[in-house]
Specification:
mainly beta; 30% strand; two-stranded antiparallel ribbon; 2% helix
Length: 164
């Protein structure tokens, strides 16, 4: 059930008055894909750049390889060092990405997808669940910036859109 507590919203108070609901692309199952999942053991931790001065520690956990509209694509999958200490998030994976809709129909800074560590070498990636970082709504938040290697050279017309 969604959290309806406006005190926890990233929206600025003046924006809450006008906000009705998020704008999403229509659900398109071509963007719900079974990807090949490849762990990348031995990766070093690194400071992920953010929209602020905060530099959270992540490491590359693996890669997902998939095809959309005949294009072979790849995204790196990350794990937060902070979340590893929280039992409920020990299998949490983070996929920040950009695509050719950014700055036109979606937030210019990219979008995110959350995944769980799969039990096999396949993983379901549903771009219909792609969401904006909090900094898309409020500059006071410090949000991870998708690394260059997670820039998709295609349009992902799925998930949340941005009302510009």
């Amino acid at each position: 059930m969604p959290n309806a507590d406006s005190s926890k919203s990233p929206l600025l108070k003046e924006d809450m008055v006008q906000f009705k609901m998020h704008n999403f692309y229509p659900v398109d199952m071509k963007f719900c894909i079974e990807a090949d999942f490849k762990k990348t053991p031995g990766e070093n931790t690194f400071e992920m750049k953010t929209t602020g001065t905060r530099r959270p520690m992540y490491y590359k956990f693996g890669e997902i390889h998939f095809t959309i509209d005949g294009k072979k694509l790849q995204l790196n999958v990350y794990q937060s060092m902070d979340l590893l200490n929280k039992p409920e998030y020990k299998d949490y994976l983070f996929v920040p990405f950009t695509d050719l809709t950014n700055g036109k129909e979606t937030y210019g800074g990219g979008r995110y997808i959350d995944l769980r560590i799969p039990k096999s070498d396949k993983i379901i990636v549903d771009f219909n669940k792609a969401y904006n970082p909090y900094c898309a709504y409020n500059h006071k938040y410090s949000c991870p910036i998708p690394p260059k290697e997670n820039a998709l050279d295609t349009e992902i017309k799925a998930g949340i859109k941005m009302d510009h």
